[in-house]
Please model this.
Amino acid sequence: MRISKHEGSNFWDHLKEKGIYEEVQELAEKKYGHLYQKGKINFFERIKNILNSILGFFIS
Model:
């Protein structure tokens, strides 16, 4: 494993120190934002999943 050249315990802290955190975050959201949105589950989908798991447990 390579030793990190930036100071601090977190790479994001390093980006904030350099003043490029916002730019990097915007680029990441543009490139990978669809993956983040895909991983989100809204409240009603959570309830549906819980009910399906309970019903599945009793049916099987």
About this structure: The CA atoms of residues 29 and 35 lie 9 Å apart. The radius of gyration is 20 Å. The mean pLDDT is 77.
